[in-house]
Structure formats: C-alpha cells, structure tokens
Amino acid sequence: MDLSAAQRGRYRIAFSRPAALPGVTVGKFRSDGHLFTCVTDRYATALHLSGRSEWSLRGARWSSGPGTIDVKVPGEVFSEHARHGQRRFQVVLFDTRVVDEARATLDCTLSAPKENALHSRDPRVAPLAKLHRLLLRNDASPAELEGASCDALLALCEFATARRDPSRPRSAWAGAVTRARELLDARFTETIALDDLASYARLDKFRLCRAFRDEVGLPPHAYVTHRRIGLAGALLARGVPQAEVAARVGLYDQSQLHRHFKRIAGVTPGEYVRAVR
C-alpha cells in the first residue's frame, strides 16, 4: 500500500510499507533537481539505479552510481555535492525496533560504517542488494521477502560493527538446521513463519538463515520453493490442472507457479506437461 507520494518540480518520491515486512519502509526516488541534504532518522540502505552522485558523510567523500549500495545509520548528515544525469535510487529504511531486535539477538553494538558506496556484488552488502532487487520486482512472495530481510539485517549488523564471536561454534548449529529441515520437509506446502521455524529449531532466525544456507545450499524460503516445484512436477505429470497444482503445493496462484517453475525447471508448466506426455 502506498503511504506517501510527492511530485515537486523534477522530483518523484514514493513510500510504501510492504505488508510482509513489518517495520520496513521502502522509498523510491527520482530526481534531477536541486541537490539533497538530509539527516537520517533510521537505519537505511540505498541501491542506486541510474545517474551518479558525489556526496559526503562524516567528512568523507563518496561516489555512488548504478549498482552501488550505501548504508546509513541514524543521526548522520548526508550532503550531496554533485550529480551527473537523472538520479534514481531505492531506499530501504528499517525501524529502530527491528534493528534493535537483530542487534540484541546478535549481541553487537552498531556504529557508523567506515566504508560506503560499495558495489552490490561485494559480499558484505550482497544480502542488502538482494532485498532491494526483490522489492523492485513487486512479485516476490512473503517468504522470499522475510528471508531476504533477515539476511539483510544480519549483513547490516555485520557491516556496521565488529561483532563478538558467537558463544557457540557454527558446527554446533547443525542440529538446529536438521530440526528446521525436518519441519520444512514435513510441512513445505504450508506457510511457516521464520520466527516459528527458528523457535522450532532452537536457534535465532538470523543465525538459522545463515547456517541453513551453509549446510543445505539454499536459504529456508528457497528450499521450500524447490520442494514445492518438485511436487508440482509430479502432480502435473499426473494430469492435475495447473490452478489446482498451485493450490496443492502452497503457492498463491497459477501465475506464481508459472514464474517459479520456469525459474527452477527451465521450462513453463505447460511445456513440462507436453514433454512428459
């Protein structure tokens, strides 16, 4: 739902709060007007889509262009000094409550990062970039968004502070991953909230997402999607209509089945049905 949209001269600004991400606000900006100066009031990350911007933060100068990720913490003064071309970027703002939950769980204290304007391929900010791209798509499932948001918060905490080593080695998390996987295997056609999965696995959701990906090769939501598409293929081969298949495997509708099936199997459901006949 769009919360706010403004058109001022050569500015276009729109804000929304995705229903699947409580405590997260998404802003989309387009401007070739006057230069920005602002004070950030929340933890934020920006993905630049077009144009180049020269700006300063804490006395340091930075340059952002297509594909770069910026990270800002509350209370910082952002000043733009020059712009080249129309600037388009997306901002994801995390409410303080959401970041405080992650910070307390991970036992870390956040501070202003020493680096900024990193390319989205940089492993330190890649989870932030993934969340941005899912939000730009406008068709990501709630499970995809929840998992990506969890990874993004973990990346934000790691990027903005030097965390103390966890009290347990990662190898000790294998049991939690096993418990989580057993639950997902038993109920992958259902919607299981990440908080509920973490509670069942007896590991906080931030470490669970990372440990699950390390052990299994996919984050939990992606693992569920692959299991659903595997079942969908078996049902389609038996002649079950696509709309019914989508409902039976836990997807919203036929269009979501089509998108995930094509991405994972490499063919559309219809092409698959014709191939197995």
Care to describe what's here?
The protein has 277 residues and is an alpha+beta fold. The protein contains 10 helices and 9 strands. The chain folds into 3 domains: 2-156, Jelly Rolls (Sandwich); 165-217; 223-276, Homeodomain-like (Arc Repressor Mutant, subunit A, Orthogonal Bundle), CATH 1.10.10.60. It has helices at residues 96-106, 126-137, 142-160, 174-186, 194-201, 205-216, 220-237, 242-249, 254-265, 269-276; strands at residues 2-8, 11-16, 24-31, 37-39, 43-57, 60-64, 68-72, 77-94, 118-119. Strands 1, 2, 3, 4, 5, 6, 7, 8 and 9 form a 9-stranded antiparallel sheet that branches. Strand 5 (43-57) and strand 6 form a beta hairpin.
The CATH architecture assignment of the largest domain turns out to be Sandwich
The CATH homologous superfamily of the largest domain is named Jelly Rolls
Unreliable stretches covering 5 or more consecutive residues: 1-9
Give the termini distance in whole angstroms: 43 Å
Predict the CATH topology of the largest domain.
Jelly Rolls
CATH class of the largest domain, please? Mainly Beta
Structural class: alpha+beta
The overall average pLDDT, rounded, is: 86
Give the domain tally.
3
Q: Report the major sheet.
A: 9 strands, antiparallel
Proportion of strand residues: 15-25%
Question: Could you give the count of β-strands?
Answer: 9
Compute the number of helices. Answer: 10
